[in-house]
Specification:
With 181 residues, the chain is mainly alpha-helical. The chain contains eleven helices and no strands.
Length: 181
């Protein structure tokens, strides 16, 4: 599947603009992590881009989240590793690969970075630095939906929280226009 085909699929299945921005942010982070680890950025990017494809459809039925996406993508030629990463981000499978562990940690990190940006005095992602995000990370009542334990799983990738935050922040800064930040 190409990125263009993925975006067409998103336009059919996802109506929430903020969810689409989240999916784009996850794509950017996954691509940047793939580059860091010497993996295929296009494959990793598509997994990040499509991981929440069924979110609108399953919002009232969270136990099906990611499973419907995997059924759709299985027919589109996605590998077992890619499908596992998507299932695992929603807790439906063990994280069996670096890709799966990366997506699991990236998913809430993008939300934390967006929330930190919106509380930054400039409200501009370009002005947010790693230390600003890390200070917000330490505030338990800030962006409660950004699961800190899940983000900390970046250590299973061999990355410190500081390194992981920097990689994701740089990735998201590359697409600030798409994110509206």
């Amino acid at each position: 599947m190409t990125r263009t085909e993925a975006l067409e699929l998103i336009s059919l299945k996802v109506s929430n603009k903020n969810l689409i921005k989240h999916m784009l942010a996850c794509e950017a982070c996954m691509k940047k992590l793939a580059e860091y680890f010497g993996e295929d950025p296009e494959r990793w990017g598509l997994v990040g881009l499509l991981h929440d494809l069924d979110y609108d459809e399953t919002s009232n039925n969270p136990e099906k989240h990611a499973l419907i996406t995997c059924e759709i993508l299985k027919d589109k030629g996605f590998s077992d590793e890619e499908l596992n990463a998507i299932r695992a981000h929603a807790g439906h499978a063990e994280r069996e690969s670096k890709m799966a562990s990366a997506l699991y940690a990236v998913d809430p990190m993008t939300g934390l970075i967006v929330a930190a940006t919106l509380m930054h005095p400039s409200r501009k992602l370009q002005n947010v630095d790693r230390d600003f995000v890390l200070r917000r990370y330490k505030e338990k009542n800030f962006a409660r939906g950004a699961n800190r334990e899940q983000i900390a799983q970046c250590q299973k990738l061999g990355l410190s929280l500081e390194e992981f935050t920097q990689i994701c922040l740089e990735a998201m800064k590359e697409i600030t226009d798409e994110l509206g930040l």
